[in-house]
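Per reviewer request, we include the raw input and output of the structure prediction for the construct analysed in the revised manuscript.
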Amino acid sequence: MNDYKEVRRRWLEGESQRSIARAMGISRNTVKKYCKGESVPWERKTYTRDADVLTMEVKEFIEKCLRADAEEGTPKQKHTARRIYTRLVAEKAFTGGESTVRRYVREVKGRVSEAFVPLAFAPGDAMQIDWGECSIYLSGQKQTVYLFCARLCYSDAPFVVAYRRQNSESFLDALVQTLQYFGGTPKRVIFDNAKVAVKDGFGANAEATDSYAALSAHYGFEPVFCNIASGNEKGLVEGLVGFSRRNFCVPIPRVESMEELNAMLREQCQRYMGHLVQGKEASVGILYETERTALYPLPAYAYDPARRIEARVSRYSTVRYDTNSYSVPVRYCGMAVTVKALPNRIEVYSAGEMIASHQRCFLHQQSIYCLEHYLPLLEQKGRAIFQARPVQDNVPECFLDWLKKQELRPKELVKLLRLSLEIGFDAVMRGQRQSIPDQSEAIEDKVLVATVDLAVYDALCTRREEACT
């Protein structure tokens, strides 16, 4: 810019172009271009040259390839510039270079810019839902969890809930929680083509899974599915996924349970009600109050999102679900039972009665044992107590070492295990009992079994088995 200013000044003062070029040490062509002010350095002209090999036939072939990609709607299987070039060489005997084809493909794609129609939704008309993921520290361990995000389209009211897995039971449970949170049902629920909701097809031709179809029928909404690679069709919730990850989960949450995390997420959703979305006339909370009156009322019966399978109890008194084995009381060994899978729990039923309940395991090929389930069997097979997996997995190693030193009979060892489950392992090792009827005195380790009333043990055993079942 300084050179341009100097060239203009000298020329206006009458100095020749040759003299200006010699004095400033620049090309006479540059001086000639700038001295009269016909060209300026801050504007550059674009020079384009249409290659001779880029005939009309070649251009039409390139554009046809790109149109075919758009019609097929398969973004992971589309023509690259290199693929178009190889096809031109093979099918059209093209003699030009690959860079020529790349340049024209870039030009064509630059000309085609997708336009979007601004939308407006009536109160209660639609809700958009989607999944996202984020990292948290759960009991000190870094974990990836999945965020189910929902947003009413008129008010932009959000709801976010986290799950350990993105499976069918979590999806259905999240929808039930969402509708209960909003206090009603919109006319339409817009989602993508995820396999937790779609059994076959995609977009307008998608067929909902049986469970999703049953839930939508129960709550009275129409499930709507987006076209493939068309996130813009649910842009409101797409924005919520990123917003909740950047704002609700930064810094990375450190929680002791999923319940604590979800309580935090719900609190953040409540705070968002005071937010004013750009282009809206009122805050999210005020618009939500209007929209809530337009929602369909909830049914009297809440949909049960659990997945159920029939299973037979193995000879190890376990039932299998999702590659993992869960224990049941040994008296049900060999019987047919119903396994009910919830997002965070596994429940087992026999003849309509719940006989076992476990925290759901999200690893693979694991066995989860409840010690109470095996105590009656250990009374009969006492020599297996210290090698039994239910004992090793549930009893502290220090307590096992202490038991081995007591030189007690198997039935007495089982009675100690029962008592330990009632009052705690440390209390038993200290010879102390807590809240046992008619047995308030502290007892020494060596005489523990002899001094405890057998009727008290029977009562404790009954209570523990009832609590377990």
